[in-house]
Amino acid sequence: MVALVGCARRMAEQAGGDDVTDDELHQVIDRVLFGAKDGWACALEGLLTRTETANLVLAHLESWLMDRTGRSWDATMSLGGDSLVTEVERALFGAW
After folding, report:
1. Do 8 and 28 contact (CB within 8 A), yes or no?
2. Which of 6, 36, 76, 77 has its CA 20 to 30 A from that of 18?
3. Whole-prediction pTM value?
4. Closest by CA position to 49, among listed 57, 27, 26
């Protein structure tokens, strides 16, 4: 979870959310993986691939950050593209 929060921290900084706390980021990730979306169970059951699971987490973080920071959806946010997806995959599932 520490590595995931680290990825989310970089996203928050890109979104202008320097005041977003690690605890808030942890809560968002936890909700996606273990709460309403149950992304982790879906991944373990093979319903989501590693990449789909990473994208699920990133999409929810991006939506939450846009709302939290008041950022317009028209504003571009450079998240690092595929490298961030790969980083989140590694944080979730380890190196392969």
Report:
1. yes
2. 36
3. 0.87
4. 57
What pLDDT digit, counting tens, does each position of 10-40 carry? Answer: 999 988 888 999 999 999 999 999 998 899 9
Q: What is the pLDDT of residue 92?
A: 94
Which helix H or strand E contains 54, and what residues bound it? helix 50-69
- CA distances (Å), origin 4, targets 14, 34, 48, 70, 71: 16, 14, 18, 23, 22
Amino acid at 73: W
pLDDT recorded at residue 70: 86
Distances (CA, A) of 21 to 25, 33, 47, 52, 76: 7, 19, 31, 26, 22
Q: Any idea what the Cα angle at residue 87 is, between residues 81 and 9, rounded to 5°?
A: 85
Could you tell me if 92 and 57 are in contact, meaning their C-beta atoms sit under 8 angstroms apart? yes
